[in-house]
Design goal:
This protein is α/β, with parallel strands linked by helices. It has nine helices and 15 strands. Strand 14, helix 7 and strand 15 form a beta-alpha-beta unit. The chain is globular and about 60 Å long. The two termini are 38 Å apart.
Length: 331
Amino acid sequence: MARGRGMTDPRILVLATGGTIAGQAGDAMRADYRPGQIGIGAYLEQAHALGIAAQFTGRQIANIGSEDIDASIWSRLYAEIDLAMRDEGIDAIIVTHGTDTAEETAFLLDLTLPSTKPVVLVGAMRPADAVGYDGMRNFANAVRVAGDPEAAGRGVLVVMGDRVHSARDVRKAQTRATEAFRGFPRESVAIVTPSRLDWFGAPWRVDEPARLEFLPLPEVPILAVYAGMSAAAAERQLAGDPPGIVVSGLGEGNMPDPVRQVLLRHARRGCLVVRASRTDEGLVDREPQDDANGFVAARALGVPKARMLTALLLANGIADPVEAQHFFDER
């Protein structure tokens, strides 16, 4: 299904997974809605009618709220993009995605794909029939980014609210506002509108191969730490001796001592234990005890992305905390 206005327009593969960007409420004033109601064919027809200039090929991977994304969808998404990376007839890839888990999907793809072509995730905070729908503007912005040759060599990008974020930095920071996404340690890497794109620096991953192989991910639980938490409470969250644990810790990845003793037991049996923070942003640096404890510091990665990287490292056979730390130290 091709849509476009000229042979000089970028040739973009659009992979649709649903989400609010394809959602409908049935009433422009309603607060609730159903995600993933508009198919990719109809969506690209709307984009074409608005004059968004690209030669589109659309494929429907899923039509869900992104809270329901799973390994089977990630696998198909990766396979489609991997093929597109080697297809000389495709210049760039856009993924339409729900916002709840966009940071995890973007980071998974960022770690497992080469940086040779632009890959852009885009979503919306309001359904398509709501007053002030932001999805089509975000999509037009994503086309502007994906169609720019300078977008290559920056890894996977997320476009929301006239901002372009790196997959490693981006996170959803608000539940409803259209400016719901923020980045850390880089706030954003560009500002974009449907007519203009301004990068804040040169590409930093030119012709870089994939960092890790895309493989089935093991289950890695998140240990939610709170004040006064007991060892028994921690053990209940960690039933089954998982291969990895990400700690949603206090402050700079801290935890009560009874919880630390539980995690020490898991680390000594070979579990990859990663200290992250439940705070909104900031670095979790290594502390003197980490070497003795066999723990990894999440550095700039928040809890969801720390869990994703931990699972992918384990899938690639990397369970040594010293080797794992190198991947968390990357900027």
